[in-house]
Design brief:
Number of domains: 3
Bound molecules: manganese (II) ion
CATH topology of the largest domain: Creatine Amidinohydrolase
Number of helices: 17
Shape: globular
Structural class: alpha+beta
Length: 605
């Protein structure tokens, strides 16, 4: 009786004096998959101040007597009268946060003072019935902080006035006077700047009415020779400088895009053991993107299992998810025009095999080595070299290259440097299995703007993404020679052992005052952390089995140009059944039936 009383009082003590607080409950119910925290919220005043600061910074970089013209992105056709989802041009968005098309921003600078004008399509009930509400002038002022709004229907007249350097008076009464010497436009930098040629078609055409585009043979870059009053200044460089360093405001948005991506990756790892096809895992990822109100992805999701993990930009997601395989997911949610870019590679079974672990550990160590170099004042390529060295040593240890410093036989040549010293260069053997760079700037573009020679400084964000890809056909394209045969024979045992393993680990790194912060730190990365995470997380989400798939999905893939050695592409076009950069070629039964020579067909594997 007394005993019972004691127990009862202990119980009473526990229940009355140790209440379970909300915080404790959260701990008890803590999930392995990290839920995205709430999105950052900014007041109108905060946003306007940030955008004004950016426009002032743009103005400060402009030469005096200048005008900057930024057009909205043009709609991109999906098919017929259907467009792709509209996405504003990044630099216009960077300075205005105006998401709707048809707008244009003009900054003029003369006598050191900067004026700003926003051209905006007028509200229109007929248009809005079909396409949704347009911004009113008041909306646009509230969003962007630009005070002078001009009807976009006047843009053509305005541009004509700009050509003649007469000031322009809008119907609203606003007068725009031009900086009359230099015209800043987003135009291609060189004949090979094909991205800008595609994205800035309108700007390039407009620049054509002021300048003749010549190529400087020494630098292979474009020179815009004035023909009509203005000197063309390429605004790409200006925005490269502005956007390379992220403000605290931008960092909060990027962290949110990364947090959404972290949850999506977690969900994909939790469910990968329950799915049969890569597209199901892609769906789990993009489900989280949409559910957490990401705008979209920043680039098409890469979800490749087994051999498909060795294709760098594999986008088809039609392969099977094999129980013994690794799955590589390189995905990024985009939030308010900022994208994440995160890669994890993990075993479907929840446990790395010995061979998978051997490769993974090298990539992990390379990533750590690179991270240790990232700090203010350092250069991006120092981190790249640190990762290269770890990968080269690791591959030598596994027998996938003959030795550290070795070239693929037949690619060596002697060069003489500026001081007359002779040096042997060639295609390094380790590049057969690690054929990309360490990473890139990250921001509004997944491969963000900015000069890679710039010393690292607080607020810069880049990816750290080494990888090793043992492609099944990696040794198939070397020129035939006794030296190549001997090299291949030497590495063949290791090659057969590690064949079809592809690993990339990619994290998003923020340069801080003293070093670097892993913005992706909430996503498991060490092998034992991934295994422990999968064991827990797989119990948190159950997905329904995909219906049996008996449809035949065929697509012709680009089979040209596979391996780049010393600037020479070795084509694989003679080889059927080989893998290529953009996907998995299968020249089987289906190929014969259709009469096509190169087919991608996952479901007959
Ligand atoms: Mn990347």
């Amino acid at each position: 009786m007394k005993k019972l009383y004691v127990y009862a009082s202990i119980a009473a003590f526990l229940f009355t004096t140790v209440p379970v607080s909300a915080a404790n409950e959260d701990k008890i119910a803590a999930k392995a998959i990290r839920q995205t925290p709430p999105a950052p919220v900014f007041t109108d005043a905060e946003r306007q101040a940030e955008l004004l600061r950016r426009r002032q910074a743009a103005g400060a970089l402009m030469k005096d007597n200048s005008t900057l013209v930024l057009f909205s992105a043009e709609p991109k056709i999906y098919a017929g009268d259907v467009n792709f989802m509209y996405r504003q041009e990044n630099n216009l968005y960077y300075l205005t946060n105006i998401k709707k098309g048809g707008a244009a921003l003009i900054l003029t600078k003369s006598g050191g003072s900067v004026n700003e004008y926003l051209f905006l399509p007028k509200r229109n009930p007929q248009y809005e019935t079909w396409n949704g509400r347009r911004l009113s002038n008041e909306d646009a002022i509230r969003i962007s902080g630009v005070r002078t709004i001009v009807d976009a229907a006047e843009l053509e007249n305005f541009l004509t006035a700009l050509k003649t350097k007469k000031s322009y008076t809008a119907k609203s009464g606003a007068t725009v006077s031009f900086g009359s010497e230099n015209l800043y436009l987003l135009v291609p930098e060189s004949p090979i700047d094909n991205d800008a040629k595609r994205e800035y078609r309108k700007e390039t055409e407009f620049a054509g009415s002021f300048a003749k585009t010549l190529t400087n043979p020494a630098t292979n870059s474009y020179v815009y020779e004035p023909t009509a009053g203005y000197k063309i200044e390429n605004a790409q460089g200006l925005f490269g400088k502005l956007r390379l360093t992220k403000s605290p405001y931008e960092i909060r948005l990027m962290q949110h895009a990364i947090d959404i991506t972290t949850e999506a990756q977690g969900r994909a790892m939790a469910t990968a053991g329950q799915v049969k096809w890569e597209y199901e895992t892609q769906a789990e990822i993009e489900y989280v993107f949409r559910r957490r109100n990401a705008d979209y992805w920043g680039y098409p999701s890469i979800v490749g299992c087994g051999p498909n993990a060795t294709t760098l930009h594999y986008e088809e997601s039609q392969g099977a998810v094999g129980k013994g395989d690794l799955l590589l997911m390189d995905v990024g949610a985009e939030y308010d025009h900022y994208t994440a870019d995160v890669t994890r590679t993990f075993p479907i079974s929840g446990k790395f095999t010995k061979e998978q672990a051997d490769i993974y550990q090298i990539v992990y160590d390379a990533q750590e080595a690179a991270a240790s170099k990232l700090k203010p004042g350092a250069r991006f390529n120092e981190a790249g070299k640190a990762a290269d060295a770890v990968i080269e040593q690791g591959l030598a240890k596994l027998g996938l290259i003959t030795k550290v410093g070795a070239f693929v036989p037949g690619t060596e040549r002697e060069i003489t440097d500026g001081k007359g010293n002779k040096q042997t260069v060639g295609f390094p053997q380790f590049r057969v299995f690690y054929m990309h760079g360490l990473g890139h700037w990250l921001g509004m573009n997944v491969h963000d703007v900015g000069d890679y020679g710039t010393p690292l400084a607080e607020g810069m964000i880049m990816t750290n993404e080494p990888g090793i890809y043992v492609r099944e056909d990696a040794l198939a394209y070397f020129p035939d020679s006794p030296a190549v045969k001997a090299y291949i024979e030497q590495i063949r045992p290791a090659f057969e052992r590690y064949k079809n393993i592809g690993v990339r680990i990619e994290d998003d790194m923020l340069i801080t005052k003293t070093g670097v912060e892993w913005m992706t730190k909430d996503l498991p990365r060490k092998m034992n952390e991934i295994e422990a995470f999968m064991a827990r997380a797989s119990k948190e989400v159950t997905v329904s089995a995909a219906p049996k798939r008996d449809d035949l999905r065929l697509s012709v893939v680009n089979s040209d140009a596979n391996l780049l050695l010393n600037g020479t592409y070795y084509s694989n076009s003679v080889l059927n059944g080989a893998t290529v950069r953009r996907g998995w070629i299968h020249a089987g039964k289906a190929a014969a039936q259709s009469g096509l020579s190169h087919l991608h067909h996952a479901s007959d594997e």
